[in-house]
Amino acid sequence: MNTTRRLLLKSAASAGLIATAVAAGLLKPGQALADWNSAGFSATKPADALAAIGAGGATPSPDIVVKTPDIAENGAVVPVEVVTTLVNVESIAILGEKNAYPLVALYTLSDFDGSLSTRIKLGQTANVRAVVKAGGKIYTATKEVKVTVGGCGG
Amino acid sequence: MAIAMRIRAGNGDIRILMTHPSENGLRKDAKSGQLVPAHFVKNMTVVVNGKTVLYGQLGGGISKDPYHAFKVRGMKTGDKVTVTAEDNTGDKGSIETSAS
């Protein structure tokens, strides 16, 4: 049993501690708490969220299409489909770049066949970013969604 | 309370709908003005014939009643598809079906 991880899970409701642990090299980003990427989900800036999931250097790719409505009347329910022709897809992350917590979801995949859909909240007009790890490399694409009524409370 | 789910699987396609408030902890109750505590699905796992094809880490940015659909290569009629999920309060849910 990984006692470091246990300890962190018990004591570290605070993301700060995990971020510190990551910074101190105690935990490798991406590998840290593989169950749920606390650092990523509690990051308040897209760049920080991307760094936390190990996608800081993602390459823009025309092989990923983020399908959303152009205009979302209700930001609380925005359908998002990530379609990609990339092969050997290992993971997909979805971010709402102007959300209070940009990282919405991170999926680890096997035998993926090119399409993943979900529904997300967008607080305001923003880019929806998909990050796809395929064949050991990290690619990204965005799509802007205009939101007329936000869906992130507050 | 268990997380209720519905699933459809077939033609290389898996669709899952969960019943869940998906509160991100940032929304204020309209009446009381108090923040509604975070209550969202944190993890979901989809297994086809014993192999995990999707492991999702989810945040409060997923819409109420989380919906997921995705395509899986090589899925055949009769394949056993199992979905399990857990939220941030420790509530769990699971569902199983055979691919049509």
Question: Layout of SSEs?
Answer:
The complex is a heterodimer of chains A (154) and B (100).
Chain A: H1 3-11, H2 15-23, H3 38-42, H4 46-52, E1 59-60, E2 64-67, E3 71-72, E4 78-84, E5 89-96, E6 103-109, E7 112-120, E8 126-134, E9 137-147
Parallel strand pairs in A: 1-9, 3-9
Antiparallel strand pairs in A: 2-4, 4-7, 5-6, 5-8, 8-9
Chain B: E1 4-10, E2 13-19, E3 41-48, E4 51-58, E5 67-72, E6 80-87, E7 92-98
Antiparallel strand pairs in B: 1-2, 2-5, 3-4, 3-6, 6-7
Instruction: Give the overall shape of chain B, derived from the CA principal axes.
Output: elongated
N-to-C span of chain B: 30 Å
Mean pLDDT of chain A: 84
Helix/strand order of chain B, N-terminal first: EEEEEEE
Kindly provide the name of the CATH class of the largest domain in chain A: Mainly Beta
- SSE run of chain A: HHHHEEEEEEEEE
Structure write-up:
The complex is a heterodimer of chains A (154) and B (100). Chain A is α+β, with helices and mostly antiparallel strands and 154 residues long. Chain A has helices at residues 3-11, 15-23, 38-42, 46-52, and strands at residues 59-60, 64-67, 71-72, 78-84, 89-96, 103-109, 112-120, 126-134, 137-147. Chain A folds into two domains: 1-42, no CATH class; 45-154, SoxY domain (Immunoglobulin-like, Sandwich), CATH 2.60.40. Chain A has four helices and nine strands. In chain A, strands 1, 3, 5, 6, 8 and 9 form a six-stranded mixed beta sheet that branches. Chain A has a three-stranded antiparallel beta sheet with strand order 2-4-7, with no helix packed on it. The relative contact order of chain A is 0.19. Residues 7-34 of chain A have low confidence and may be disordered. With 100 residues, chain B is an all-beta fold. Chain B has one domain (4-24, 36-98): Immunoglobulin-like. A four-stranded antiparallel beta sheet of chain B has the order 4-3-6-7, with no helix packed on it. The two termini of chain B are 30 Å apart. The model of chain B has no long low-confidence stretch (mean pLDDT 96). Classes of the chains: A alpha+beta (154), B mainly beta (100). β6 of chain A pairs antiparallel with β4 of chain B.
